[in-house]
């Protein structure tokens, strides 16, 4: 024992555990891996852990640094640890008279389930098997031996599983045997002979008989598995660094396959699917660990309460082995109390004695995470702060959208099984029901008439934004998780299934088909963006429950956060959702969406097509009352919360028709000659619309547009104020400012309009004028610009595009390769790029504050709903973040976590 301690200052590679003590503990996960660290911790707690030792992750690191050679001294340390293990167990490794068998288990710092392998029953050979047979019965001995040969051949020698399955099936058929449990010792002996012959034939050398050779073979196999293809892919997907390495745990075997008083199983201290405090899990009598997951036999539930929820008639462990069950429950309670978190545990019962083989914090659904955190705070196991820090803000996304009932819920409610038409990628969570539409303009028109539509496209492009916004959900046949459709849908909070490649879409005929079934435009479908399913018909959706545990958790978050959270919203529906989700105002109300509506667009077009100011003013006068009523409704819903309203931003050509067909239609409807219309559209064409005649440039060249919008805002505010109950707080935002002069001119225009309205009505409301910082020049000039700006709102979508020189819509083409090569670790349109964009935000904040200490600072890009970006905004000293309504709770929690981490420093 305690090899590590005895060796003093020398590099130690091996750490022992067992017998009520250990060299390591739970804090040493980096060195011992999660499994090894927790085995050590459990041993120290005095729990029944079979003794063993952990070869540290440092060995794995050294192994790969030296072209797969072991560090000097390792062999001696392993030998010493093995000798100590023999002494402690009173058994000999390779000793037929009293054999010690071990398991060799991988265990990295972060759990990588199923990625790396485990070998059980190691140390068996012909002589040892015979010895074991004399001690514990020959059925058990040869069952263990054949298990070992199977596993070792597969994991260490690299032979396929099928080969052995084949041999076994063949043998069973010849002998007329059905189940594995029907085979007696002689049967297994015969199978073992065939297994070994297969190894000899495949590899040209015999199965290793020397236990030490077996041990080193297994250790190397675990280290080698760190670089297996599947492990490499898993690490990529889960952001696990390659240089962490894995540890190897060598542990004395305990036997769950020793007869009817033996068993093996897994348990969770609470239900990982809903968080309920029931003892959850399953077990198998007379079996070894891999049998539970292998699916050969069906495991039975652990507890009566779990059996009851399952409606299972199988005998729970609670009834089969009441003593063991009681002990297991005590251990589970002790572990949960010790780790202060829900535990996922593995155990084995050998001849009526319980052994603990693993514990770790259990994975759980978002719903379970919320319930467990809140329950544990109520149980006084953890503090409110700890409860808040437990949750992954992005995981909340699962809870914030309407969802379809789970298969279980559906079954209970007596519903028919879901009719899944096609499955694609789960690109943006939430469920929606609506009518299939294949065209964005049509989606927009139908939605305007109050229809729920599902936009189905081969893929989407920036031209589809309007339709995507109008649709309840989006489905595409092509494109991955970072495709235009996926990125935009997530930003808008629309459920999305993308890359459903089995869909054959025929836009001309207005239908799509999948494997022989055809669906037409107007057919109703239900989509589940969380699982990627598209289903026929309307499924009754369950609305998110924002009260109860969730509401309580959010109230704790609100107590500790410093950052305020607003939402980006321009429709009454989005504004209402935002308020329900706890938004403290609107951070970005885009006014152009209001122009697209069916009855407005003709006026917008005639404004654009007018040759002179008089004509434009006439058209704008028609738009004024419509825009005013939009703002009135928003101010009423906001009930005195502030609203940052951005004046017109996009280039005007976006409002004109593009295709010949559209041009002909518009010409007919508006009475303008089609050629003239085409010529004007051509005049307005911009080679790079992003950098063109848009934003404040429109306000400078056509002041009457901004004047009309400002008038609509102030008249609306005055009207609502006159109603006597509410005090609207408009914040007028000028977009795309690059110089102080632009803002000064337009602020004067807004102020003048405000004064006129106040004079005309005799009512005054408080308002401010500020700007969006979305150009690098504006960020650098912030000190100057702040002279005219009461607030800066960082438009981080455009600021990312203009700073990195990457267009958001085209980034999908190369971001994948960029992330693989480590150029951008994260998508800069999801997580704020801190070196470029973040730097500019900090510079602008600092320069702006120097000029105007009370200047209000916020961000309104999609980054406002990304937890890492929210943390950045907290540290940069901004006042608020603004994000899509559905992400508001995520931002609230992320802001609370940022504040807690900050004060912990
Ligand atoms: P994984 O990380 O894939 O869960 P483990 O190393 O935990 O792999 O091993 C899988 C299973 O093997 C365990 O759950 C347990 O049932 C069994 N096992 C591992 N070590 C031992 C042991 N010393 N004695 C008995 N069974 C063991
Ligand atoms: Mg395990
Ligand atoms: Mg912009």
Give the termini separation: 38 Å
Tell me about the biggest sheet?
8 strands, mixed
Strand order across the largest sheet:
14-24-23-16-17-18-19-15
Report the bound ligands by name, code or SMILES: adenosine-5'-diphosphate, magnesium ion
* CATH architecture descriptor name of the largest domain: Alpha-Beta Barrel
Please report the number of helical segments: 37
Query: What is the CATH topology classification name of the largest domain?
Result: TIM Barrel
How many discrete domains? 4
The first-level CATH class name of the largest domain: Alpha Beta
Q: Give the full name of the CATH homologous superfamily of the largest domain.
A: Phosphoenolpyruvate-binding domains
Average pLDDT, all residues? 92
Structural class: alpha/beta
What is the percent of helical residues?
40-55%
The residue ranges in which pLDDT falls below 50 over 5 or more consecutive positions are 1-9
Rg estimate, integer Å: 33 Å
Q: Which of globular, elongated, flat, extended, rod-shaped describes the shape?
A: elongated
């Amino acid at each position: 024992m305690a090899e590590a301690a005895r060796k003093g200052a020398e590099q130690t590679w091996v750490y022992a555990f067992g017998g009520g003590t250990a060299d390591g503990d739970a804090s040493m996960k980096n060195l011992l891996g999660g499994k090894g660290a927790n085995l050590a911790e459990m041993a120290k707690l005095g729990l029944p852990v079979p003794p063993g030792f952990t070869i540290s992750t440092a060995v794995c690191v050294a192994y790969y640094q030296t072209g797969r050679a072991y560090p000097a001294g390792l062999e001696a340390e392993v030998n010493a640890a093995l000798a100590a293990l023999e002494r402690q167990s009173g058994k000999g490794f390779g000793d037929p008279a009293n054999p010690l068998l071990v398991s060799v288990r991988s265990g990295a710092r972060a759990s990588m389930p199923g990625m790396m392998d485990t070998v059980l029953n190691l140390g068996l050979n012909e002589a040892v098997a015979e010895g074991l047979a004399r001690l514990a019965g020959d059925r058990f001995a040869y069952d263990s031996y054949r298990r070992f040969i199977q596993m070792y051949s597969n994991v260490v020698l690299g032979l396929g599983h099928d080969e052995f399955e084949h041999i076994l099936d063949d043998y069973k058929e010849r002998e007329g045997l059905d189940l594995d449990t029907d085979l007696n010792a002689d049967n297994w002996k015969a199978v073992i002979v065939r297994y070994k012959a297969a190894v000899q034939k495949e590899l040209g050398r015999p199965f290793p008989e020397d236990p030490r050779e077996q041990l080193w073979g297994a250790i190397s196999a675990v280290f080698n598995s760190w670089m297996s293809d599947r492990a490499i892919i898993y690490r990529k997907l889960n952001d696990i660094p390659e240089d962490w390495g894995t540890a190897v745990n060598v542990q004395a075997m305990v036997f769950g396959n020793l007869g009817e008083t033996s068993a093996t199983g897994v348990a969770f201290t609470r239900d990982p699917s809903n968080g309920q405090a029931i003892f959850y899990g399953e077990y198998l009598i007379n079996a070894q660990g891999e049998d539970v997951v292998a699916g050969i036999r069906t495991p039975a539930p652990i507890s009566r309460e779990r059996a009851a929820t399952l409606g299972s008639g199988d005998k729970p462990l609670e009834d089969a082995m009441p003593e063991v069950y009681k002990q297991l429950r005590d251990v589970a309670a002790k572990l949960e109390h010790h780790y202060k978190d829900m535990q996922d545990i593995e155990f084995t019962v050998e001849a009526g004695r319980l052994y603990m083989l693993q514990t770790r914090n259990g994975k759980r659904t978002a719903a379970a995470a919320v319930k467990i955190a809140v329950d544990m705070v109520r149980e006084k196991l953890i503090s409110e702060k700890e409860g808040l820090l437990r949750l992954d803000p992005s995981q909340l996304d699962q809870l914030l959208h309407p969802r379809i009932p789970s298969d279980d819920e559906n079954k209970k409610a007596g519903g028919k099984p879901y009719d899944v038409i096609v499955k694609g990628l789960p690109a943006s969570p939430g469920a929606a029901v609506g009518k299939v539409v294949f065209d964005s303009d049509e989606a927009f028109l139908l939605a305007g008439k109050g229809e729920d539509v599902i936009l189905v496209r081969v893929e989407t492009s920036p031209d589809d934004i309007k339709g995507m916004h109008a649709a309840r959900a989006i489905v595409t046949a092509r494109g991955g998780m970072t495709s235009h459709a996926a990125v935009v849908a997530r930003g808008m909070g629309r459920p999305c299934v993308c890359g459903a490649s089995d869909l054959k879409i025929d836009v001309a005929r207005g239908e799509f088909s999948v494997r022989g079934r055809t669906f037409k435009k107007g057919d109703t479908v239900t989509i589940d963006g969380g699982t990627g399913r598209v289903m026929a018909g309307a499924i009754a959706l369950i609305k998110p429950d924002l009260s109860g545990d969730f509401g309580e958790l959010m109230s704790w978050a609100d107590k500790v956060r410093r950052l305020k959270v607003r939402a980006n919203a321009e429709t009454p529906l989005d504004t209402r959702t935002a308020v329900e989700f706890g938004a403290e105002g609107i951070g970005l109300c885009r006014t152009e969406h209001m122009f697209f509506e069916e009855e407005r667009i003709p006026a917008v077009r005639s404004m654009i097509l007018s040759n002179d100011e008089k004509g434009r003013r006439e058209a704008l006068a028609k738009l004024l009352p419509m825009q005013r009523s939009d703002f009135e409704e928003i101010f009423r819903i906001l009930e005195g919360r502030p609203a940052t309203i951005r004046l017109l931003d996009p280039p005007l050509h976006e409002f004109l028709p593009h295709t010949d067909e559209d041009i002909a239609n518009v010409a007919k409807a508006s009475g303008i000659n089609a050629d003239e219309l085409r010529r004007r559209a051509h005049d307005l064409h911009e080679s790079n619309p992003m950098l063109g005649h848009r934003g404040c440039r429109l306000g400078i060249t056509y002041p009457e547009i901004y004047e009309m919008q400002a008038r609509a805002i102030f008249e609306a505010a005055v009207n609502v104020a006159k109603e006597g109950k509410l005090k609207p707080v408009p914040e007028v935002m000028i977009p795309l400012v690059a110089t102080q002069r632009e803002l000064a001119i337009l602020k004067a225009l807004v102020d003048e309009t405000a004064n006129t309205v106040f004079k005309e009505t005799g009512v005054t409301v408080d308002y401010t004028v500020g700007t969006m910082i979305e150009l690098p020049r504006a960020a650098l000039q912030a000190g100057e610009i702040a002279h005219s700006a009461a607030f800066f709102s960082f438009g981080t979508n455009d600021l990312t595009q203009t700073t990195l020189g990457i267009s958001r819509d085209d980034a999908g083409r190369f971001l994948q390769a960029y992330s693989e090569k480590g150029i951008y670790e994260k998508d800069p349109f999801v997580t704020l790029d801190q070196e470029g964009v973040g730097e500019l935000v900090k510079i602008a904040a600092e320069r702006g504050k120097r000029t105007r200490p009370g200047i209000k600072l916020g961000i309104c890009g999609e980054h406002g709903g990304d937890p890492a970006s929210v943390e950045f905004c907290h540290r940069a000293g901004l006042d608020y973040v603004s994000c899509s309504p559905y992400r508001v709770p995520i931002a609230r929690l992320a802001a609370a976590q940022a504040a807690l981490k900050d004060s912990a420093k």
